[in-house]
Design brief:
It contains 8 helices and no strands. It is elongated and about 120 Å long.
Length: 166
């Protein structure tokens, strides 16, 4: 038999301790416990728990328990609406929501830091801002390229003035 503690079958040991196993499985488990100290210790501890539960006696219920219970229920039902609202808005009721709110804030901050918004640029003083189309921008770029090419041609010395006449 495989050890129930190693195979995580503690329910089998609990059923054995409670006496809910059939005779064949109980006999096999008893034989296993003779060789396995961990399972034997588990059985001993569970037996102690069951014995303690058998000895435990609850406190007796008072004779006016039902009457006091119904008085508290009626008092809660008769309370004004603002008192129940105040009770529902207590800090202890919001404690489970605090980790969720913190997670939402962290995610929102991460998103905002990763995706900064576009800031509007203010024009410098003395510069007028006009809307320029893409076609006009291409024309300006072509014109600047032509001017640069003409300046490069002017910088090249001409050989016509140095030629010898015959």
């Amino acid at each position: 038999m495989n050890c129930p503690l190693q195979t995580e079958e503690t329910d089998l040991l609990l059923d054995y301790s409670a006496g809910r196993l059939d005779a064949a499985r109980a006999a096999a488990l008893t034989q296993h416990m003779e060789q396995c100290a961990a399972c034997a210790a588990f059985r001993t501890e569970q037996t102690a728990v069951w014995n303690a539960l058998d000895l435990w006696e609850p406190a007796p219920v008072s004779m006016d328990f039902n009457r006091r219970l119904w008085q508290r229920i009626d008092a809660a039902a008769a309370a004004p609406w603002y008192q129940s609202l105040r009770d529902s808005l207590r800090f202890t009721n919001w404690k489970p929501a605090i980790p969720l709110a913190a997670a939402v804030i962290v995610i929102a901050a991460g998103f905002l830091l990763d995706h900064p918004g576009q800031q509007a640029r203010t024009p410098e003083p003395g510069v007028s801002v006009t809307n320029v189309s893409l076609r006009e921008a291409d024309q300006v770029e072509q014109t600047l390229d032509d001017i640069q090419l003409l300046q490069q041609l002017d910088a090249v010395p001409s050989n016509t003035g140095n030629s010898k006449t015959m």
